[in-house]
Amino acid sequence: MKMFSRRSLVAAGCAVAMGIGSMTAAFAATEVDLILTNGKIATVDAQNNFVTTVVVDKGRILATGDASIASGYTASKTLDLGGKTVLPGFVDNHVHPGPREPLVAPGEVDLVHAYTWAENEKALREAVKKLPPGVWLRANAFRRYFTDAEPATVWINEDVKKIPTRQMLDKVVPNNPLIVRASQLVVANSLALRMFGITKDTPQPAAGDGKIEKDANGEPTGVLWYSVGDAIEAFAPPLPPTPKLSARDEFLGYKDFFVNMRHLGVTSLNIAAANQYTLRLYQNLQGEFKGELPRMTVQPGLRAEDFDALQKNLAALEGYGWHTGAGNEWVKLGAIKMFLDGGYTFSRPWPINSEPHKHVETYKGGWRSEPDYFYHVFKRAHKLGWQLGIHSAGDEASVIITNVLERVIKESPREDHRHHLIHVEVGPPEATYQKMKELGIGVALQPNFTYGLQPFFSLALKGEQLARNNPARTILDHGLKLTFGSDERPYGPMYGLYAAVTRRGADGKVYGPEEAITLQQAIRAYTIDAAWQTFDEKTRGSIEPGKVADFAVLSDDIFTIDPLKIKELTVLQTIINGRIFDTPAGLPNYYHPVQQPRK
Fold first, then answer.
1. Which of these three, 202, 235, 268, is where a domain ends?
2. Which of 452, 464, 500, 451 is nearest to 358 (CA)?
3. Cα-atom radius of gyration of the chain, to the nearest Å?
4. Whether 141 contacts 119, CB under 8 Å
């Protein structure tokens, strides 16, 4: 793509002017900041039109059309797209910013970078060298990273296609009790099992979601699921304090998160479950780096696990003094975020499902908050003018939340509330879909979960619930507003678009092809409709005159390539408010943050 300076364009214009004399005075061009030309630019307007040229000034789109519209303007910069495809900047409906991996304490080792068993062995050997025999070693193998070779956060390595056993750990760490946390499971070596009291004769837990994995001879493998893994972690001596980042390092770590999201073409994002400290931090970031970072909508997080928490949250609502929408175009308040159930990765209780979870046949999940407590918080928040965005992963959770919202909305009708359910990884029954339509309740889906969380879904779900996870087609067919985002699994819109269109999991299998949607529908869910969720559809989310100049320039034509290659696309340039940011060469098209101290 060619970039022309204003000086060169003006010089060329002067040369032409010499040939036509003073006639040019009557047709003086309007000076603008930027013209994008020679592109395949998807406007994502109501008709899904394409244009070749966009004129930008002072961060706003002035005009769109074919190349002829540029003749009326003189630009400080002209970006020749060379036929490249441009989309509106992506609007991610669900992110969790910030330094995610703290420094490790003595007696602890981080394995998230170790993608082969050999790399795990090396890291464990180095860590145990620093400890005397008999001292506990803890490891973290919670794969927040994401690659095609290792999509799951379950501890399975590229060269050993299974979860490691205690015998494998014993060869590396024989003289120290070792426990490795790997998302919803813990793997322990023989010494740790012996000290904790787990043997061949230890029975399975009588209730709950815990499980001691055993081999064909009844011997424990070292793999401890859920509550049993929690119990051995609690049994181990506590770690010494973890070193802390300085306030400035933490601040810049958050900045790095947003810069990486920008490299993925994300120009607006919805921050889930923030607090007063992080809200202030985001305001300070936008103040110091204004124009460099995506626009932020911040969801205050509230919980209501018990009566005391309920009272605190009601008091917090009264004390805010504002509601959804307060702020400016760079950082503002969004919906209140609350949780009913858990998630399919590390969160517990697990999602509330109508069917038992596949791996624990008697367990249907549990709630984090009592539905009656939800009613009181919803009612007050709704009356105060807040939008509500409620975590709901299981199908039964969506039923419960919709019923509570129905009660609140009917008691206090309010136009255009835009309340929505978050995740909906297992779709609710038909009656609930109909009720959501009647009440105007939307769905904030993360379509990349079909790909990135497929190993978890395969462990937990079966039948139709597995096949139709993240039911985008059903949601649209019921006339509900559907928005897209990422929620860490991984960050990167291309994986969400890929999964929404192909319905392929990380294992390459197609899950519920009837839930696939068209590429245009998927793009709208990740742009203009996601902007709707934050009440911004009139100012962003599409490439139309009057809207902010936020764009993503793609490496290939997403509309003509094989859909299976969508997840290979990268964003070459991201434009925020008319300012161009090049993506560093070689940067992957996904992201999950890792925080390290600055030198």
1. 235
2. 464
3. 26
4. no
- 247 Ramachandran zone, left/alpha/beta (phi>0; psi -120 to 50): alpha
Domain housing 26: 2-83
Res 167: pLDDT: 96
What was the pLDDT predicted at 98? 83
Q: How many domains does the chain have?
A: 3
The number of angstroms, rounded, from the C-alpha of 306 to the middle of its chain's C-alpha atoms is: 28
CB-neighbour burial class of residue 111 (10 A; exposed 0-12, middle 13-18, buried 19+): buried
Mean of the pLDDT values across residues 171-176?
A: 97
Helices (H), 51-198: 117-128, 166-172, 190-196
Q: Region 316-328: what's the mean pLDDT? A: 89
CA atoms of 397 and 403, how far apart (whole Å): 10
**Residue 546: what pLDDT?**
99
Lowest mean pLDDT among 25-29, 126-130, 326-330: 25-29
**Residue that the structure tokens 């309340």 belong to:** 419
Pairing of strands 551-554, 571-576: antiparallel
Would you state the pLDDT for residue 242? Answer: 73
Contact 471, 429 (CB under 8 A): no
Classify residue 512 by burial, with Cβ atoms within 10 Å: 0-12, 13-18, 19+.
buried
DSSP notation for 134-162: T--EEEE-------SS---SSS--SSS-S
Q: Residues with Cβ < 8 Å from 184, sequence gap 6 or more?
A: 154, 225, 226, 229, 345, 346, 348
Alpha carbon of residue 255 to chain centroid = 16
Distance of CA 339 to the CA centre of its chain: 16
Higher pLDDT, 223 or 344: 223
Find residue 3's DSSP bridge partners. Answer: 79
Between residues 109 and 9, the one the model is more confident about: 109
Band the pLDDT of 5: cuts 50, 70, 90.
Answer: very low
Beta partners for residue 288, in sequence order: none
| Strands of 301-403, DSSP E | 331-333, 336-339, 388-392
Shared domain for 140 and 62, answered yes or no, is no
Predicted confidence at residue 152, as pLDDT, reads: 38
- The per-residue pLDDT of the chain, averaged, comes to 87
Q: How far apart are the first and last CA of the chain?
A: 36
What whole-number distance in Å separates Cα of residue 141 and Cα of residue 111? 5
Whole-number Å distance between alpha carbons of 5 and 28? 19
**CA-to-CA distance for 498 and 447, rounded, in angstroms?**
9
Separation CA 179–CA 592 (nearest Å): 24
Where among 192, 213, 235 does a domain terminate? 235
Inside any domain, residue 89: no
Q: pTM, whole model, 2 decimals?
A: 0.81
Residues 238-261: tens digit of each pLDDT: 888 777 788 898 999 999 999 999
Whether residue 535 is found in the same domain as residue 477: yes
* Axis-axis angle for helices 371-383, 307-320 (nearest 10): 10
Q: What is the mean pLDDT of residues 30-51?
A: 98
Indicate whether 222 and 349 sit together in one domain. Answer: no
Q: What does the pLDDT look like over 102-138, one tens digit per residue? A: 567 778 998 866 667 888 899 999 999 999 999 999 9
Q: Which residues contact 336 (CB under 8 A, 6 or more apart)?
A: 299, 300, 302, 317, 324, 377, 381, 386, 387, 388, 389
